[in-house]
Amino acid sequence: MATLREARLARTLSQRDLAECAGVTQKTIVDLELGRQEPRLRTIRLIAAALGVEPAEVDEFRRAIEEKAAA
Predict the structure, then answer these.
(1) For a Cys staple, 19 with which of 12, 26, 36, 42, CB 3.0–4.6 Å?
(2) Cα-trace Rg, the chain
(3) Greatest pairwise CA separation for the chain in angstroms
(4) Positions of E strands within 1-71
């Protein structure tokens, strides 16, 4: 598994590029990478699709999905 930052850098995307591809703000990407924001399921799907990965392949997304499932 990889962090969001690692997955983004592996695809040589800037935070701005990923945000544009995913249809979210750059601040969202920054906040998620820094752990300042809990990702919503819709945001997880958008960013994972932009990265071309399954949501569970990104550490922050996997944790958020597991927490939401447990609630």
Answers:
(1) 26
(2) 11
(3) 35
(4) none
Domains recognised in the chain with CATH numbers: 4-70 (1.10.260.40)
Q: Are residues 48 and 28 in contact, defined by beta-carbon separation less than 8 angstroms?
A: no
Q: For 11-59, write each residue's pLDDT tens digit.
A: 999 999 999 999 999 999 999 999 999 999 999 999 999 999 999 999 9
* Sole residue written with tokens 């249809």: 23
pLDDT of 71 strictly over 90? no
> Is 0.90 topped by the overall pTM?
yes
Task: Say how far apart CA 19 and CA 30 lie, in whole Å.
Answer: 9
- Alpha carbons 34 and 22: distance in angstroms, whole number: 18
Alpha-carbon distances of 56 from 16, 22, 60, rounded to whole Å: 22, 17, 9
- Copy the structure tokens of residue 42: 């819709």
